[in-house]
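[Meeting: bench + compute handoff]

Bench side (C.D.) handed over the final construct sequence. Compute side (W.E.) agreed to return the predicted structure before the next meeting so the bench team could plan truncations. Sequence as handed over:
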Amino acid sequence: MKILISADMEGATGVTWPADVLPGSEQWQRCRRLFTSDVNAAVAGFFDGGADQVLINEAHWTMRNLLLEELDERAQMLTGRHKALSMVEGVQHGDVDGIAFVGYHTGAGTEGVLAHTYLANSITGVWVNGTRASEGLLNSLVVAEFGVPVVLVTGDDRTCEDALGYAPRARSVAVKDYVSRYAAVCRTPARTAADIRAAAKEAAGLAVRGTPVEDGPYTVELEFDAEHLAGAATVVPGVVSSGERKVAYSAGTMYDGIRYFKAVTTIVSSAVEEQYG
């Protein structure tokens, strides 16, 4: 049994505001250990449940946040940027039996601690075939095309609620309860580690690769907080204006859809100006 862990940071234990997740800050250095603790708990739980291999795909910001020297030695980590499938890189090789979304968060325009979709601000909403989409939903559609089930989701309580929509059978662990985008009632690392480990052990029993799901075509729509960002996005072939500050594109598969999404967000992030956005 091989498990892939897609590890994001905004949904980690104790994380509640931007400085906690922005590389280089004092708070980020502190929260890296909390993030690593959550991932280690998931690794331990999956091995408790019978996993033979666990690969961690670092999925936050620079994708260089987890502390390799403090990781469970049984795991391996894929770290660094510019990966074809970004947050779920590794799922495409046909040897992954289940995936865990650890440290995830809710999507842009919704309630949740540090809620966003790919870009910290700029994007105010994402919809797939008319359904508002978080990173969890987007990534779940990608992995489904490889027959890989989402078996575990951790983050705040709103993230666990969101996961019911795209992975209803997955085990979930709320490490904090949403108060505002920058505030939460947090459990201690000792408690969240125990909860995540127990949930991951159960989740291992759900890690059974199935038949690839092909539900395309997909229409993806993005809304931005400034009109010029929507204009910048249409530089990508196939991306068209779909309304005020909105663009849309279509893709036959979510494998292609997420690669379009990467292209759009890369172009848009380069068009953001300091202060005015």
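W.E. noted at the follow-up: The radius of gyration is 18 Å. C.D. will use this when planning the next construct.
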